[in-house]
Design a protein that fits this description.
The complex is a heterodimer of chains A (415) and B (261). With 415 residues, chain A is α/β, with parallel strands linked by helices. Chain A contains 14 helices and 10 strands. The two termini of chain A are 20 Å apart. The model of chain A has no long low-confidence stretch (mean pLDDT 83). Classes of the chains: A alpha/beta (415), B mainly alpha (261).
């Protein structure tokens, strides 16, 4: 059984091409079924994220499988207008390393981003639902999740945020212990602010207020985000109760002034206020940062923090890659031992039958008690030899030992 | 054995202070937590040996009080850690505890063999030492956390991240609560101190008591800001750090200057 992978990603194909070859989450299950049905593949899963579409499969004939996957990718998923140099093919160990790197976000456009793991999990679950994911891919994906988790906890790859929107959330975490009782005020309805809002919602923020020049637009967005809409004239009142302010209004002069914040600070009972100004020109007067308990960050500050995050992440690549190699080797050892599994099962059945027969002949036990004793004796008797067989198989001598065991116990005749 | 147990406790605290620099590593963080627990345990063994054997050091003596303060600082911190994510300041607290324990162990070595002063203050003297030592420990926690608050606040104001330290809100909450607890106990400690002096016909206005009263007065400022005016942030944090410096001087500095133990 060989692992193969065919795909395209942000390194090999432009965004226009990737758009044509992307798979909607709802279509994943159907494509898995179709892929296994129309080809001679033992197992297959379609993985599609915003930056990649990949087909990973298990087959006894890897070359034929590659051809089949390439055809499927070009003609069944896409429109057939794809240059071959935009597709990459991977085999055996390279597939394992690649999938582990993808799950851990080492192969992502934004290094260390967290969303990719969820997308890999979705692809795996779709494969499980359609039964196109068998034992080898099941183990491969489980190991990939474990690798991603290890990299996240043992390195700093996931600890520093890199996108501007995420930096805003990270800043809020520096100030607040939890977001459940916090009020977030969104000034304007820019896309960047909206992205941060989604992140804050995920972090636990319950109360969102949207202030906009056009109240109707604020109400529209408020309905979508389950928030409260207010007019820009009410800004001063809302500033007094807000804990986080995200500003992204198109304006040629600051709409939040130091005086306005001074007035609201008097009603804040000493609570800190984080202001993230995402607008250019800036929405918040720069001298507002002089106020006590007001923490003002503009785009330049955020980019500076994000750059430091990227630098931190870059130092984590080597340890993360070492974890990928370690986990790949473990997976490969497991795969080496896989051919001995049927022999182990046959040997267990063989020993069980013999032990049970001998015990039954003594007449000292019967029924469930006889089965229990026979199972226990078999397990004790075979524990050490089977453990050694597994170890030898992981070391690469599995086939030799498998044949020896089958010949010694006459197991091959039972096939 | 009595001194060895105190030395070991100081060594454990010191190890936590040093290990704490690598707190990003999960296992080291857990190990340092276990070491701190061992230090507290070893310190408790020291107290047991101190009071179960032929006592040469009374609770009212300077070194015994210092040792008690160091132990209570760690205990107060461990209690705080149960309610707030303040593990990042663990090495700082351990460093303070290690320093105080080391002073205590040096003092203990030099005072062994000398006749024990007769405190004979009864309940008042014990109450004064215990209340003041507990107050000192909570106020030490509040000053360490207050310092962490000022450091983090400074970095955030200058657009830097400081993810190794807890959130400002957490630090502020710990300052707020430990200040309240420490100040209440300090007030009782001062009151019982005067009661002790009165019961023994001692002069109440010594350098120690004057500085202690001064520290109490200094602490009135952050208490007023934090609990009466409900003001949070930099001002109470500065108050607890400054207050603790005065308090530490009233306990340790004044005795070191006068050479008394």
């Amino acid at each position: 059984m060989n692992l193969v992978l065919v795909g395209l990603n942000h390194r090999t194909a432009s965004v226009e091409v990737r758009e044509r070859y992307s798979v909607a989450p709802a279509d994943g299950s159907g494509l898995n079924e179709k892929l296994v049905q129309m080809s001679d593949l033992d197992e297959a899963v379609v993985l599609s994220t915003c930056n990649r579409t990949e087909l990973v499969a298990v087959s006894s004939n890897p070359e034929a499988a590659i051809q089949c996957l390439t055809y499927f990718l070009r003609n069944e998923i896409g429109d057939g207008r794809l240059d071959m140099d935009q597709i990459y093919e991977l085999r055996a160990e390279a597939v394992v390393s690649h999938l582990f790197s993808v799950a851990a976000s080492l192969d992502s456009m934004v290094l260390g981003e967290a969303q990719i793991l969820g997308q890999v999990k979705d692809a795996y679950h779709a494969g499980v639902r359609t039964r196109s994911c068998g034992p080898i891919l099941h183990r491969l994906f489980q190991r990939a999740f474990r690798t991603a988790k290890r990299i996240r906890t043992e390195t700093q790859l996931g600890s520093s945020s890199v996108s501007v929107a995420r930096v805003g959330i990270q800043l809020a975490r520096e100030l607040f212990e939890s977001f459940e009782d916090k009020v977030v005020l969104l000034i304007g309805a820019g896309q960047m602010a909206e992205a941060s809002l989604h992140g804050l919602r995920e972090a636990g923020v319950r109360e969102l207020v949207i202030a906009n020049r056009t109240l109707e637009n604020a109400q529209l967005l408020a309905r979508r985000l389950n928030a409260r809409a207010v007019a820009l004239d009410d800004l001063e009142v809302e500033l007094a109760s807000a804990d986080v302010v995200l500003a992204s209004v198109q304006a040629d002069r600051p709409i939040v002034t130091k005086t306005m914040l001074e007035k609201s600070t008097a009603r804040r009972s000493g609570r800190p206020l984080l202001i993230v100004d995402l607008a250019v020109p800036r929405n918040v007067a720069s001298d507002a940062s002089e106020l006590s308990l007001v923490y003002l960050y503009d785009l330049d500050d955020l980019e500076d923090v994000a750059r430091r995050g990227r630098e931190n992440r870059a130092t984590s690549i080597a340890p993360a890659e070492a974890i990928v190699i370690e986990e790949r080797d473990r997976y490969e050892r497991w795969r080496e031992a896989l051919p001995t599994v049927p022999t182990i099962q046959k040997l267990r059945a063989f020993a069980y039958e013999r032990v049970r027969g001998e015990l039954a002949a003594t007449g000292q036990a019967s029924g469930a008690e006889l089965d229990r004793i026979a199972r226990s004796m078999t397990a004790k008797l075979l524990h050490e030899p089977l453990e050694r067989l597994r170890r030898e198989a992981e070391a690469g001598a599995g086939l030799y030992y498998r044949d020896a065991v089958e010949r010694l116990f006459g197991l091959e005749e039972e096939d | 054995m009595m001194i060895l147990s105190l030395d070991l406790a100081a060594a454990f605290y010191l190890a936590v202070a040093i290990l704490g620099r690598s707190r990003r590593d999960h296992w080291i963080a857990r190990f340092s937590g276990a070491l701190l627990g061992l230090g507290v345990g070893m310190h408790a063994v020291h107290f047991y040996l101190l009071h179960s054997g032929p006592a040469t050091i009374s609770l009212e003596s300077f070194v015994a009080a210092l040792s008690l303060i160091a132990w209570l600082i760690v205990v107060a911190y461990l209690v705080t850690e149960r309610f707030a994510r303040v593990q990042a300041v663990r090495p700082w607290v351990a460093a303070v505890a290690a320093a105080v324990t080391l002073i205590a162990t040096l003092g203990l070595r030099s005072s062994l063999g000398t006749p024990a002063p007769n405190p004979s203050g009864g309940v008042w003297s014990h109450a004064h030492v215990l209340l003041s030592a507990t107050a000192f420990s909570f106020l030490a926690i509040s000053s360490v956390v207050g310092f962490a608050y000022l450091l983090k606040e400074f970095r955030l104001k200058h657009h830097g991240l400081s993810s190794t330290l807890p959130a400002l809100e957490t630090l502020d909450r710990v300052v707020h609560l430990s200040l309240a607890l420490g100040f209440a106990l300090l007030t009782l400690g001062v009151a019982t101190g005067f009661a002790w002096a009165r019961s023994q016909d001692l002069a109440p206005w010594t350098a120690h008591t004057l500085w202690l009263l001064g520290a109490w007065a200094v602490y009135c400022v952050p208490v007023t800001l934090s609990w009466i005016r409900q003001q949070h942030g930099v001002a109470p944090a500065r108050g607890v750090v400054f207050g603790f410096l005065v308090l530490a001087f009233s306990y340790v500095g004044i005795r070191l200057i006068s050479g008394g133990a």
